[in-house]
Amino acid sequence: MEERPVLLGQLTRVLAATAPRSPLPLRLCIAFTEMVAAQGAAITIGFNAPDRATLCATDTLADRAEDSQDVLREGPSLDAFRTRTPVCGLSHTEQVSRWPMLSEVLDREDRPMLLHAFPMRPDSEVLGVLSAYQTHERGLARSCEDAQFLADAIGVAVLGGIDSGEDSDLLWGARDQVSQATGMVVAQLKIAPPDALALLRAHAFAHGTTVAEVGRAILVRDLDFGTDRQGDDP
Length: 234
Hints:
By secondary structure, this protein is an alpha+beta fold.
């Protein structure tokens, strides 16, 4: 597995290069697609399988793959959600054996779809699933372990929040610092505030610290997202 800060730094650069007009979840989905050399991806969220909903999809094929799994009640995204483990690297033959109805539906596109799914589980809860597809059997450009880390980091970026284990005065102070740090990241990378806050969350997850600590590191200039120092400790 590549070093987590290195992967996060690459995700930061790819995200900063995507069109800012698109919603953040979709842009993270596109960034993941590029990093793992997939052709499309989708994010589904929900704490219970019946309540699953597709948050975003990069294209119609990715959206159709998720919709078909909900209808047929079989597929890698459902398996990843249920087992809390990634489903990746299966051959087309293995997929047909494991999900025969889904494979029959998706293979009507004149090209077999290879599906991969990663539960977004930065802590004890599965927040959702990040899935990706390919129409060839070359495999992903990243290991399943690397792709799983990216899925966890994206889960934090999309759905994470500020830790609240302190009293109210300290919490409001931390919020103020995070707000100021977010503004600094906006200036450093020329990105929108929601994107900047998402990167703070992902950086905190990658380094095993809190968003407040990352905010403080940015404010005292120990961390600068505008340089190649994302791998440094906050």
